[in-house]
């Protein structure tokens, strides 16, 4: 038996303390000194910057009208809504793509549109569009395809859809390349980063879908005050965007902090039966999950479906309108 020397698992680099600045910040914000030092370590080193970081108001969310191509997307949606054309949502097999698909599915059902969803298989289809995608589009007789959490670099598929006479909206957060996809609207904040007043780019795909839903519902109401039922839908669907934000490892800064804080708080009593069923199955029926709970409990359950070639199951759990069915499907996720 030979002796083995084990190297340290982690090499810690400890930042120096800043006692004067730490204590002043702790006093001004009524924080524990440790929390104040963490803020300093993360460059929130002035009172205004620290207050802004700790501000979880929903007012920090950008107006959807600021999203790139938003106006064009509303023109497309006006046509689709006027003629009640069939829509296909093209998602992804991870948590972000699944939550974004569920959110948009609920939105379009709410607007009384015929809607179907295609979630690619991780192994059989791979990321973004495949031949199975086009078979699903043709089967649905879709006049509009909405890609969520994919599509920014789907150059050939988008060109093919244009040749088929199908309208396309891309709601994505992956960095674009120099080439732009041939789509009607590319709603991706990363396309604005070189602008004078860029949109916050660190939203996940479901976060972009939530902003799109908010903007579309306001547009459909002609910017009049939303009904209480519509506001409840937006708040509860924010729970899907919150889960996706954490699961996709988005930066928890700026608007994302507000979105996650408020979204997670809605989950135990959500009006979305599938989301509530999954939360209850995992023990979050009395208190909201934390970001850690999403990372190590909720997200792994949803990801298990895609990794076991059953990506559609995660969608079905979250999208069901029946609480009892949601509980049964959530148990299948737990088995996976």
Helix content: 40-55%
Q: Could you tell me the radius of gyration in angstroms?
A: 22 Å
Strand order, sheet with most strands:
2-1-3-4-5
What is the arithmetic mean of pLDDT? 95
How does the helix and strand content classify structurally?
A: alpha/beta
Main β sheet profile: 5 strands, parallel
**What separation lies between the terminal Cα atoms?**
40 Å
* Order of SSEs: HHHHEHEHEHEEHHHHHHH
Total strand segments: 5
- What's the overall geometry? globular
Strand content: 5-15%
User: Helix segment count?
Assistant: 14
Low-confidence stretches are none
Can you characterise this structure?
The structure is a single chain. The protein is α/β, with parallel strands linked by helices and 336 residues long. Helix content is 51%, strand content 6%. Strands 2-1-3-4-5 form a five-stranded parallel beta sheet, sandwiched between helices. Helix 7 links the parallel strand 3 and strand 4. Helix 1 packs across helix 2, helix 9 crosses helix 12 and helix 13 packs antiparallel against helix 14. The radius of gyration is 22 Å and the shape is globular.
Write a compact overview of the structure shown:
The protein has helices at 19-29, 33-41, 47-54, 70-83, 95-110, 131-140, 155-163, 205-220, 228-247, 255-266, 273-281, 291-307, 311-319, 323-335, and strands at residues 87-90, 115-118, 144-148, 167-171, 185-187.
């Amino acid at each position: 038996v030979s002796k083995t020397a084990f190297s340290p698992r982690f090499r810690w680099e400890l930042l120096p303390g800043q006692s004067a600045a730490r204590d002043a910040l702790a006093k001004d914000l009524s924080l524990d000194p440790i929390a104040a030092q963490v803020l300093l370590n993360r460059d929130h080193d002035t009172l205004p910057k620290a207050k802004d970081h700790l501000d979880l108001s929903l007012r920090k969310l950008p107006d959807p009208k600021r999203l790139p191509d938003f106006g064009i997307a509303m023109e497309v949606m006006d046509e689709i809504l006027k003629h009640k054309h069939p829509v296909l949502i093209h998602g992804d097999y991870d948590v972000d793509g699944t939550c974004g698909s569920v959110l948009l599915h609920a939105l379009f059902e709410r607007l009384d549109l015929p809607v179907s969803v295609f979630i690619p298989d991780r192994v059989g289809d791979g990321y973004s569009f495949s031949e199975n995608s086009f078979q699903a589009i043709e089967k649905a007789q879709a006049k509009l395809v909405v890609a969520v959490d994919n599509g920014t670099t789907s150059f050939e598929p988008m060109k093919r859809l244009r040749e088929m006479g199908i309208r396309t909206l891309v709601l994505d957060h992956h960095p674009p390349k120099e080439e732009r996809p041939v789509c009607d609207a590319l709603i991706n904040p990363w396309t604005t980063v070189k602008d004078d007043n860029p949109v916050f780019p660190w939203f996940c795909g479901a976060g972009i879908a939530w902003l799109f839903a908010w903007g579309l519902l306001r547009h459909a109401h002609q910017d009049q005050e939303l009904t209480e039922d519509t506001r409840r839908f937006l708040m509860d669907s924010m729970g899907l965007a919150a889960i996706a934000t954490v699961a996709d490892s988005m930066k928890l800064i700026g608007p994302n902090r507000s979105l996650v804080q408020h979204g997670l708080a809605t989950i135990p009593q959500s009006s979305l039966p599938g989301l509530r069923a999954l939360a209850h199955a995992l023990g979050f029926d009395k208190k909201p999950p934390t970001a850690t709970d999403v990372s190590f409990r909720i997200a792994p359950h949803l990801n298990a479906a895609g990794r076991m070639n059953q990506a559609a199951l995660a969608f079905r759990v979250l999208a069901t309108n029946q609480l009892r069915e949601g509980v049964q499907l959530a148990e299948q996720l737990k088995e996976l």
